[in-house]
Amino acid sequence: MHWNWDWGLDSWIRERKVYISTDSPKVPTTHQSNLTTKFLPPLPTNHLFQTIKNGKDINKMASTPLPLHPLLDTGAGLKPSKDTFPGGTLSCHCSTNKVTVELTSNVAHNHACGCSKCWKPSGALFSIVGVVPRENLRVTANEAKLSIVDAAAPIQRYACTECGVHLFGRIEVEHPFKGLDFVHVELSEEEGWQPVQFAGFVSSLIGQGLDPSLADVVRAQVKGLGLESYDALSPALMDAIAKWNAERDGVVFRSKF
Ligand SMILES: [Zn+2]
Ligand SMILES: [Zn+2]
Fold first, then answer.
1. Enclosing domain of residue 160
2. pLDDT digit string, tens, across residues 171-181
């Protein structure tokens, strides 16, 4: 699947908006859809923008999806995990001398992440990233090819210097998630990983070039998969972060008000 931020459709919808705002300044908003129908070529059928135009049909986008991530687009990342899943091996994308990482447990908090830092496969809007206790992760081959992407970031992401894939992210500073390593289960051939739980940092996609008008389309598509989407992490994880920060600051919790 190939997709990039410059695809023609984006500019097409922008041109439509320019047309409406410059050529019909006195037309009330409620009439703009008629105007659109009258002066612009009909929307392609069975297409993303047909669903936008129809509004209520926005959830029925299964046949014309944006490329969220292969694990979501194929449904492979939504299958229930196996009860006694022992973990597996992550491999980078090099054809030879692959960097491999062994995980001795399943991941937790596996989610789609729209932030600009997590590694994403080519063409995907989201990364799929989960965590394991750091003691459950071991680099088993070609460790010398790994290099930290940004040593100043709280999560030190170890990428293969040859193919660019991130094998794991580790936190060395005091941080709510210290002790957990961030990994991408798509790098494993094993099946049985925890399914994707939610999509986070959706609005961050705009800063990476997503037309703002498509943010709700992404959310609707995520919802269509049975997942919630958030503009940060899930409430459970945000609460965990807030609790960690509050305890660090000596906050005394109250349950009666
Ligand atoms: Zn590699
Ligand atoms: Zn991320």
1. 67-249
2. 999 999 999 99
